[in-house]
Structure formats: structure tokens, C-alpha cells
Amino acid sequence: MFSVAALASAFLVYPGFEFFQFLSVKAKQIPPRGTTHWKGRQFFHWDRYKTLLFGDLIFLSLFNGFAVSALVFLWNAITPGYVAFFAFIAAVITASWFVQAKRRFASGNMRTLRWDSAFTAPDGRSTICGIYHLVYFFVEAFLISFSVMFLMWMPVDWFLKFGMAGALFAYVIALWHDVHNVGMFLGPIGDSQKNSS
Fold this sequence. Notes:
mainly alpha, 3-stranded mixed sheet, two-stranded antiparallel ribbon, 197 residues
């Protein structure tokens, strides 16, 4: 079960994001591969983010493998109420992230002014790839919240718990790289200080 879940998760990232980015290019929502600047801003294709390229493709895929293995182990203890509760939590997290990200892209106040495969000109609108990312984000938010708030406190094998915790820790490192280097989620640090000096 671990291998099936991890490989399926990796497939959702690559070729998943590549395919939906291709559809966004074909729909002329975003520029083709090789474009680094577009409509007055930097442009990031999906794999410019270390969070997606390494964090999601490798570390969240491993996390999902461990989490699904634990869920199978505890299948009889999982009720529809638990599923509904964590689906609600994931929906709130996803909606909050989407509203914040769209506002930051539309406002032009991000540390590195850019468009990307999910949010683009003229006002931070969502692309086909962005909608796919939103669905993917919800699935991951569900699995992570379910695992951290439920599985970690259940009698699951320590190897599975260690695997989930280790994969999440590695994911946070990839996320921190993007926070520090391309200004995801946080205010002005790094490049903005260089540009203002």
C-alpha cells in the first residue's frame, strides 16, 4: 500500500502539474516554457518552486505513502464523522490559502513581483493549472490534518509515525527555501532588501 500511495502521489505532481500547466499554455493563460518574464513581472512555471519540485514530488509523496499505510492499518477506527471533520478542516485551510495567495498576487506587494502557472495577469486570476493545484492542495491538506491530528495519537506503528514526521520535516525545509528565496507567505526579506539597497 505504501508504494501505491507514494507513486500515485508523485504522479499527481509530475506529470500532473506538467500536464495542467501545458493546458494553461494552450489556453494562452500563461506563457510557454522558457519564459522567465511576462507582462512586466517574473514568471515561474510550476517547477521553479522547490516546494513543488522537491517538497511535493518527493517528501509529500513519501508522507502520503506512510499516512495511507497507517490509515489502512486503522481502517476500522475511522468513522464518517472523522472524515467529514477533517475534510472541513482541509476546506477551510485551502480556502484561506487561496484567498491569501490571490490577494498577494493581485496586489503586487509580494517580495518578488511575479506571475506563475497558478496565478497570473491581469489580476492574479486562477489558471487551469491553478485550479488543479487547488484540488491537489485540498487533498494534501486533508491527509496532513488527518495524520497530524488523528494518526499521530493512535496506536500506529512507530515506523509509520517516524516516516510521516520525517517526511513532513523535509517538506518544511523545501517550503522554507521558497519562503526565504521567493517570498512565499512572508513579508519583505532577502531580495527586497537587496533591491532597496
